[in-house]
Amino acid sequence: MTLTRKSVLPLLFCLFLALAGCGKRGALIRPEALVPAPVTDLAATQRGNFLQVSWSAPTKEEGGSRLKDLAGFILFRRVVLPAGQDCDTCPEAYSERARVGLDYLKDVTRSGSRYLFDDYDLKADQTYQYKIRSVSAEGSESRDSNRARRTVVTPPLPPVLEAAASPSAVVLSFVAIPPENGKLAGYNIYRAEAGKGLPTNLLNAAPVNANIYEDKTPLIGVRYSYSVRTVAELPNGETVESASSNLADGTLQERD
């Protein structure tokens, strides 16, 4: 086949368009942009003799698109060593603590939008640090989350709780011994529908300073279980909760 000027020009024109991005192509998407975005609100709080690690799920992919195939998380933990020996980035620093699948929340519970993992395998006066990765249905892992670090201390003793009903509220009364570590910051009140698991729904926005709390939000005819935890403020500004009090059930008293 003999190439002429007339036949070559269309070929050169198509080649030019191809090199210039011929057609209506969008921006190239890097594979790493399709993985889940990392968790950004990982936190660790001491409650009794365990650390409760909590986080919320990302809603977007790394590239900014809506995340549709989140399958779970991998939680890691490391022991923080003394200064001069500690290494957050060393390959063997972290070990896998929990693998969380959203289709079956083994060892993990949910409270509102947050996932909760209770870590009991701890030593007193030891500092632990956590990080977590989001995992897609295809097994792609996100970047590491923010770090959450806590030192385990001796917690305050739990309160003793009683509940009484009235037409307008369930009235909780409780007493506790002052904490040995830090100072008393108040009490946290938890609630759940009776028979549907331990109370995990925190009712108060800040620790309650009084020894009486009126819950005016229950539905009439629904029985609730309550628990209370003493909150101590440590010298470094962190707070630690006691173990849970005894459970006490209550329901709104129906008006005559």
From TrEMBL:
Keywords: Lipoprotein. Signal peptide: none annotated. Gene3D superfamilies: Immunoglobulins (2.60.40.10). The keyword Lipoprotein applies. InterPro entries: FN3_dom, FN3_sf, Ig-like_fold. Residues 155-250 form the Fibronectin type-III domain. SMART domains: FN3. This is Lipoprotein. It comes from Geomonas limicola.
